[in-house]
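Lecture 7 notes: from sequence to structure.
We start with the chain below.
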Amino acid sequence: MKNKIITYLAIVISLIFIGSVFYLTFNLYSEYSHGEERTKRQYEHIVNTIKETEDIKTLQRAIGNLNNYSSIEIKKDGGKIFSYGDIHNDSENASQSKMIKSFESDFVNANGSRITINANLYLLKPGTIFSKARISFIIILVTTAFTVLLIIYITIIEKEKYTLQEDFQSDDKNEANSENATDNEPYADNEYNIKENAAVSVSNSNSDSDSNIIDEKTESNESQENTTAETETENQNKDMAADYEKSVQDEDSYPPVTVLTENNNSNLSENTPSQELNLYSDFTGVGLEKNLEARVETELTRAISSENDLTLFIIRIPDTERTSTLCKEIADKLVESFMYKDLVFEYGTDCFAAIKLNTNLDEGLNFSDELIHGISDILLKENKSCYIGLSSRAQRMVAAKRLITEASEALVHAQQDPNTPVTAFRVNTEKYMKLISQ
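Predicted C-alpha cells for the same chain:
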C-alpha cells in the first residue's frame, strides 16, 4: 500500500510540474499570437481619439498602460505634446525585432492641427511574461517543498521500520541462542558422565592391576617354581593399564562416544542429537510442530524486510489419527499444494499448519477453496470434513506466536458454522498503520 501511495504522489507531482510549464507556455503563446490584432486596435483607438480632441487627459486615457509600449511620441504642428521612451532607437530596432510592432501616422485633426504619431507596441508584453512566470514559479516552488518534506518523512519512517526489524531479529537470535543452550545441556551432561565413568574405569583397572601385582609377589615368595610365569603376567598387566590410561588422557582428540555399561548406553540413545534435531515427522513426512513457530518467525522477518505479504493456514480434519493412511495422504496433498515440504507442519492432534508466501488474505481465501476441493476425494472415502482458519501479515510487524493465535481463532469460528468451513482473521490495516505512525 505504501509503495502505491508513493507512486501516485510521484505521478501527481510530475503532472503539476508539467502543468506549470504548460500554463506558462500556453499563455505566452496566446499573448503573442494575438499581439498583431491587439496592438493595431490599440493604435487605432489613439488616432481616433486625437482626431476628435486635443485634451491631454483624454489622450492619456486613450494611450492606457505605458507598459504596453516600447516608446510613443505625439507631435502637434511639429511640437511634442506627449513622449515616452526613445522613439528613434526603438524605431530602428523594431524592424529587426519580432516582439515589437511599429506604427506611424500624420494627419490633420478636427481643429485643423497637424498631428504626427509614432508608436512602438509590444506584441508580447513584459508584464504578461512576468506575471505568468511568477505564477508558474510559485506552483513549482510549493510542489518542490512538498516533495522534499515527503522524502524526509519517508526516510524517517524507513529508519524507524529498519530499527524495529533489527529489534525483532535480535530478539529472535536471543531466543534461538537460549533454546540452543538449553538443548545442548543434556549433551554436555552426557559427555561429562562418559569422561567421569572412563576415569573411574581407569582407576579401577589400576587398582586391579596393583592388587594382582601384590598377589603375584606373595605367590612368588611361596613358590619359586612359578616365578618366571608370574613375572611375565605382571608385566603384561602393567602394560595394559598404562596403555588404557594413555588412551583416556588423549580422549579429547576423539569423539566422546565411549559406552561403559548398558545403563549408559540406554541414556545416550535417548538423547542422541539426530533425534533432537529431527525436522520431519516419521508418520506424515512434514515438519514437526515444535519447529513451526521458528519457521513462521523467519518467514515473517523476510516478508517484512521485502514488504511482501504472507498467509498462515491451519487445516483441521477432525478425528483423524496422526499415524493413519488418511493423514499421510492429506499431508502429501498439502506438500503438493504448497510446493515446499518445509512449509507444511503437523499441528495439534488432527491439524496441519502451512505457510503461503507472497499471498494476501483474499488470495488465501481463494486458495483455501481450491485446497478443500483438491482433497475432497480423499475426505469422501473416509466420510471426513475439513475446516481451515487463516491469517495474514497484512503489512504488520507481527510476531509468529500472534499470527498462529489468529489463525487458530479463525479455525474455531470455521468449525462453528458448517456452511462456511473457511474463516479468515482480518485486521484493520489502516488503524494499525495509524497506530504505528503515532
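Points to note: Residues 182-227, 244-276 have pLDDT under 50 and may be disordered. The longest helix spans residues 126-222.
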